[in-house]
Predict the structure.
Amino acid sequence: MKDSTPSRVLLAHGSGGRLTQELVQQTFLPHLKNPILEVLSDSAVLPELPPGRPALTTDGFVVDPLVFPGGDLGYLSVVGTVNDLAMAGARPLWLTWALILEEGAPGDLIAICVEGAARAVDEAQVQIVAGDTKVVPRGKGDGVYAVTAGLGVVPPDRDLGDHRVSAGDAIIVSGPIGDHGATIMACRHGLGSDDLRSDCAPEASLVEAVFASGVEIHALHDPTRGGLLTQCHEVAVGTGLRLVLSEEAIPVRPQVRAVSEVLGLEVLSLACEGRVVAWVAGSHADAAVDAFRAHPSGREAVIIGSVQEREPGQVPVVLETLAGGERPLDLMSGTDLPRIC
Amino acid sequence: MTDAGLLHDRRAVAGVVRDIVAAAKELDREATFMEVCGTHTQAVAAAGLRRMLPDGVRLISGPGCPVCVTPVGYLDRALALAALADTVVCTFGDLMRVPSSTATLEQARADGARVEVVYSPRDALERARNAPGTRVVFLAVGFETTTPTIAAAVAEAEANDVPNFLILPGNKVIPPAMLALVQDEELNVDGFLLPGHVSVLTGWEAFRFLADDHHVPGVVVGFSPTDVLRGVLELLRQRRDGTATVENLYGRAVSPAGNLTAAELVDGFFEPADADWRGFGVIPCSGLTLRERYSNRDAGDIPVELPDPKEPVGCRCGEVLRGVIDPPECPLFDAGCLPSDPIGACMVSGEGTCSAWFRHERWRGEAR
């Protein structure tokens, strides 16, 4: 396939003319083809939705570097969109995928992103049904940006959200945190190592498996930008409840901890792209962990904390530190968030 | 379990805390200890140690964050240099957002000033080597731990004949600041947790004068929670016994005399000078300036127009740095002064006292 991919992107690839057609036909379609997409009309006309409530999400992806251990912008963009749907309890179905290319961007890089997207589509069992390509002049972009929309359906019997979180809930994370953020930051600072790899992966089948086990799930979040800390803070503030997390229980790979220490990053704020944080009924906590662990993506799931009532004046999120102390976990208040997704 | 794991071990910490609680019962009045080093401040805050200490034992933070003690006048000069033709100012990232009398380096860069962030002085030297027509000024800020790398860059510039590499000397040394602290009447400190990393360079004997001349005990400690708490326990025991010695509990890294090779390197290029510290004013012999024969590399000699130095209105960084107040006592803390939009220097660096409190100790009035 490489032969037919242009060596580099020209402005004309975004003109809608012959070069655009070639790019679509020779670089995109061979990897992403499906009966809905290959019609190539102005709109994708979809089959009727399965029963339930439709869920719709959109996301932009500007990660730097475009290719990193464990993924690339294309893979990440599909995975990120699918996971956003899954966190609402939706079964992801269809995506749109638009690329904004910078003039001069290497064709190989575009091919890697397309192949990455195709791999993610395959893993997540979804379809890209509409797409678009634009090219901006050299210096006005950063290689490749991707913009997506995702459509899924929440099954009729499912009600998921922060409104269901209550005191007594257990908080579960599906695996070690911070792998993605640490990998990206390490790449940028030339600290990459063989054992550092983004956790980037679709989570929809894991979520379905946990639902199928029958445990009572109240809310799900994927700790992407801002990491576990931001997600927990938002839930605590939104619900008026107090979250108590155990530093000892929160799984962090040693190499991720090392990178965060070297670069002075708060490990709890590092992004994940393939983890789920679940709020489940306290009485179902152990069963939920078992259900997570029974799925290949959730083998390292653990309980990391619990939900309590919050008295007036109390801080929303408290971390029991490794040392046995306590500290309030607060938002970083706009600490520079680099382009991690 | 690794060494680091062991030092984090909750049981070990709990054991030391028990001993601290027992020792504190024998106190006749509150004991206040100062951790001098910003890395200790950060470690104490992140582990939640302050709240593990019993009533009557108080930990306050000192001036050990190099960015924080860099005075407004230094930043004014850096900004003026960055505005000169054919001049690039290179700096560690921390300094970018420290307010000067007029703007931050970050704001100045957005307005077109040539300011670049580097990770080491050698990056700045490389920059100079690659642009022979450009004057590259490195902002030489830091304590004993940073100065040797700057001396090494100057040495390399000399050896390889890179005349366009200059520095703006702002380096500081810790012991004279400690002397200023023990002489400060406003401050009542019963002992010091001495800076572990700086002591690797200076050796722990550099701090003996605290006990010998001023009867204030000190203890050099490492950076794990157990390290810090063992230091607190040692200071409490000395307080109880009325003794004052300087002890080294960080023997795995710190020797009596320190790193003599580094000292020699620094001494070859720098000599002691009076230096201005934010919060303290001028402290005799607390800074380093380039020796006369390297004065051609001193960007401080380049004539520039400077504004009248102006501290941010309402900011109490000076008192925070001297340990006179805790950050929440400043009216701007979490009320206009944030890590994302700092008004005072102590809110900028991750090791700044206000930043550490902001990130890890904002209990918002929740009782212990």
Observations:
- The helical segments of chain A are 18-32, 73-87, 107-124, 179-188, 204-212, 227-239, 254-263, 285-293.
